[in-house]
Structures are given as structure tokens and as C-alpha cells.
From TrEMBL:
It comes from the Archaea. This is Diadenylate cyclase. GO terms for molecular function: adenylate cyclase activity; ATP binding; diadenylate cyclase activity; manganese ion binding. The gene is dacZ. The keyword Disulfide bond does not apply. It comes from Natrinema salsiterrestre. Pfam families: DAC, DACZ_N.
Length: 270
């Protein structure tokens, strides 16, 4: 078996740090006992009480997204450096860690996935709630039928100035926030209807049924996406909002920031 160690050993040979994704307590302990090893824990919560921790806004099903997000967060927090070689250990098939990827941290190829949550105007919890809502809506649809939806999150005053009402705003005099279970039911009901939801930095639902009128100049979104995605992308270039779009036609949830597509997730994978 020495032969196998030689070959697979290359994966973790002379890495600058080990990045553990949602390890169990005992798994983490085994690493923290290794001398001179930097260990970074990444997860939705710091269940093992790790000294060095990067929080994930959701447990990305897609492994590439999960690792990218973790590394962008780790770079951003300064717990790893650009160019570091990392052994990223995560679970792919089972509950426990079963897979190790050797990845080089590259500040150049940042996708902005970490910034989307942590460096947006809106509260990270609000962004997370809206993303979860869009994923849930995408999974279930509305009474079994696929639905589309567009959520614009943050910088609501400016977004309101660059949009107009399509209909009476059911949230006009209310003080409801995303994340509240009642609101999720309401939003799902209203998502059958046209236009965008406008949500404030703190998560207050400012309006439904808004027709966005941003300038689409300089917006570069993938060809084949229609008006909802174009408007959703463009408003994030014109304002400091981010947008989360559920496509009625392909069922994917996409997030835009600064006029760019940052994240694409398939609700069925959650
Ligand atoms: N500027 C806009 N502001 C708000 N909502 C819009 C805007 N443009 C389109 N929409 C909404 O998006 C819906 C779908 O439009 P369209 O099919 O062109 O978009 P799309 O990007 O292809 O989205 P989908 O993938 O869901 O079909 C429209 O019925 C409307 O409710
Ligand atoms: Mn369409």
C-alpha cells in the first residue's frame, strides 16, 4: 500500500492549511492535534468551536460552490493567503468527510460569491433568507406549477426610484420582514403575480409588483435569459442592491451583484 500513499499523498503534501468543511467534533480534534498545521473550519455554524472559522450562508450542495465560497471567505478574513495550497476536506456522498481536494487559493478568480452575502448593503441574514425562499419556491413551485420570481435586496430607496408599480402594493402599510414564516407564505402567494419584490437592507418588504426600469447599459448577462433576468441583473448595476431571480423556464435560482451573475443554483439539489 506504500505505492498508494506515494500517489495520493501528493494531494496533501506540503499544503499551507487544511480546510475542513463541517467536520464532526472528533474529526476536528484529530487535526488540531497535528503539530504546526493550520486548520480552517468552514460551515453554516461553528459546531466544533474552531479557533479559525468561516461561516457559510448555506450548505452548498454543489461542491465547487461550497469550496469556492469557503476559500473566498477565508481569503477575505485573511486566514489564508493568495497562492496558498490547501487540502479541502468535505463530505460528498455521506454524512462524514469522504473527499479531499487540493486547491490553490486564487484571489484573481474570486467569483464574488462571498461578497454577495457578506459585503452587500443588505444584512447577510436577509440575503440568506431570500436565497432560501427562492430555493424553496423553486423546489415546490406554486401548487405544483413552476413559478418565477424576482427579489431585489438592499438599497431599497434607490430601487424604488428606478421602478414603478404594476399594481396595488400589498406591503404598503405593513411592517413585515423576510425570514418570518408568515411572510414566506405571503411571498409565495404573491410570486404568482408579475414584477419584483423590493426588500430593504434590514429585510423589510417594501413592495411587491414593481416593474424595474434600470438602465441595461453595460450589463453583461448570459444570452438566453429573458427580461426578468435582464432587469434583475441591471438593477444591481444601477444601485447597490443585489438580486435573486428564480427562473420559471429553467427552474434555476440566480444571484446578481454589480450587474454580474454571481451564483447559479439548482433548487432540486437542495
Ligand atoms: N423589468 C421588469 N421588472 C420586473 N419584472 C419583470 C420585468 N421584466 C419582466 N419581468 C417579469 O418576468 C416575467 C417573465 O419575463 P421573461 O420570460 O421575459 O423573463 P425571463 O428572464 O425569461 O424569466 P423566466 O426564466 O422566469 O421566464 C414577466 O412576466 C414579468 O413578471
Ligand atoms: Mn422567459
Amino acid at each position: 500500500m506504500a505505492g498508494l500513499d506515494d500517489v495520493f499523498g501528493d494531494i496533501f503534501a506540503s499544503v499551507d492549511a487544511v480546510v475542513l468543511f463541517s467536520p464532526s467534533g472528533s474529526y476536528y480534534e484529530r487535526f488540531s492535534a497535528v503539530d504546526d498545521l493550520d486548520v480552517v473550519v468552514v460551515g453554516t455554524e461553528n459546531a466544533v468551536g474552531a479557533e479559525t472559522f468561516v461561516e457559510l450562508p448555506l450548505e452548498f450542495e454543489n461542491i465547487t460552490d461550497r469550496i469556492r465560497f469557503g476559500l473566498e471567505g477565508a481569503l477575505e478574513q485573511g486566514v489564508i493567503d493568495d497562492g496558498d495550497d490547501l487540502a479541502c476536506a468535505t463530505s460528498v456522498f455521506g454524512d462524514g468527510i469522504d473527499t479531499v481536494s487540493r486547491v490553490r487559493a486564487d484571489a484573481e478568480t474570486q467569483t464574488g460569491i462571498y461578497d454577495l452575502f457578506v459585503k452587500s448593503r443588505a444584512d447577510p441574514e436577509v440575503v440568506k433568507s431570500v436565497l432560501e425562499l427562492a430555493i424553496e419556491l423553486g423546489k415546490k413551485g406554486q401548487k405544483g406549477k413552476p413559478v418565477g420570481a424576482l427579489f431585489v435586496v438592499g438599497d431599497a430607496g434607490k430601487v424604488m426610484n428606478k421602478s414603478r408599480p404594476l399594481s396595488y402594493n400589498p406591503f404598503e402599510k405593513s411592517h413585515v420582514h423576510v425570514g418570518d414564516p408568515i411572510v414566506n407564505v405571503m411571498l409565495k402567494e404573491f410570486s404568482r403575480l408579475d414584477g419584483a419584490f423590493i426588500i430593504s437592507d434590514a429585510g423589510k418588504i417594501v413592495s411587491a409588483y414593481r416593474y424595474l426600469e434600470p438602465s441595461a447599459e453595460g450589463v453583461d448577462i448570459p444570452k438566453g435569459l429573458g427580461a426578468r433576468h435582464m432587469a434583475g441583473g441591471a438593477i444591481t448595476r444601477d444601485t447597490n442592491a443585489i438580486s435573486i431571480v428564480l427562473s420559471e423556464s429553467d427552474g434555476l435560482v440566480r444571484a446578481f451583484k454589480a450587474g454580474e451573475l454571481i451564483l447559479e443554483v439548482d433548487p432540486e439539489a437542495y
